[in-house]
UniProtKB/TrEMBL annotation:
UniProt-recorded name of the protein: NAD(P)-binding protein
Domain of life per record: Eukaryota
Oxidoreductase among keywords: yes
Family annotation (Pfam families): adh_short
Keyword entries, A-Z: Oxidoreductase
UniProt similarity note: Belongs to the short-chain dehydrogenases/reductases (SDR) family.
Protein's UniProt keywords contain tRNA-binding: no
Length: 210
């Protein structure tokens, strides 16, 4: 491993932003640990000839609890000896508006989108602290500071759109992720940075994400 190469651990790489981030990091010449709940969904990343030796696959469910996540992150560190960049990209949306989904759907999404972020950061922080450097990137959303309200003459059409995205429930989580990001910088000394990317709607592999 070259001293110029960064080691990335990216969650949720089976599709969308996660898969694109894997490809982007590899195109820089970096090393990537790609994770997903099902290894079959990301097997092609390791089989690509141009990626040979620079990709490791990790079976990881970010809602599996802090103990299991710590174990899996320790395994990830063993692949290349370090983690320079952790990208908390894994996300989960249940197609429901708040009245239909209720607290049960909210809890399921918080397990992945909020508590999963906390557990991943807690698992990676000791390794970054030991190596004296590291970057944690949390994928958030602009809905943390501007939500959608379905009003006006196109009320019904916009309601259908929000329902399909699970938007009413998702809006509750994104401020939590953003507010949790800043304190992470105190986890470890040295050369470190913590970012929360608050993007707008985009399409990656045909899936909308806001």
């Amino acid at each position: 491993m070259s001293s110029q190469q960064l080691v990335w651990l990216i969650t949720g790489t089976s599709s969308g932003f996660g898969r694109r981030l894997v490809q982007s990091a590899l195109s820089r010449g970096d090393l990537v640990i790609a994770s997903a709940r099902c290894l079959k969904s990301i097997q092609d990343l390791a089989e690509c000839p141009s990626h040979q030796g620079r990709v490791r696959l990790l079976e990881l469910d970010v809602s599996s609890g802090s103990k299991n996540i710590k174990h899996q992150v320790d395994i990830a560190v063993g692949f290349f000896g370090r983690i320079d960049v952790l990208v908390n990209n894994a996300g989960h949306a249940i197609p429901n508006i708040l009245e239909e989904g209720g607290s049960e759907c909210l809890r399921k999404q918080f397990e992945v989108n909020v508590f999963g972020v906390i557990d991943m950061a807690n698992a990676a922080a000791p390794h970054m602290r030991a190596q004296g450097s590291g970057t944690i990137v949390n994928i958030g959303s602009r809905s943390a500071w501007k939500t959608e309200i379905a009003v006006g003459p196109d009320f019904r059409r916009r309601c259908r759109c929000l329902r399909s995205c699970g938007f009413a429930i998702s809006c509750c989580q994104t401020p939590a992720v953003c507010e949790l990001t800043s304190p992470l910088v105190f986890f470890f000394p040295g050369d470190r940075s913590v970012l929360c990317l608050q993007g707008s709607y985009s399409r990656a592999d045909g899936n909308a994400r806001g």
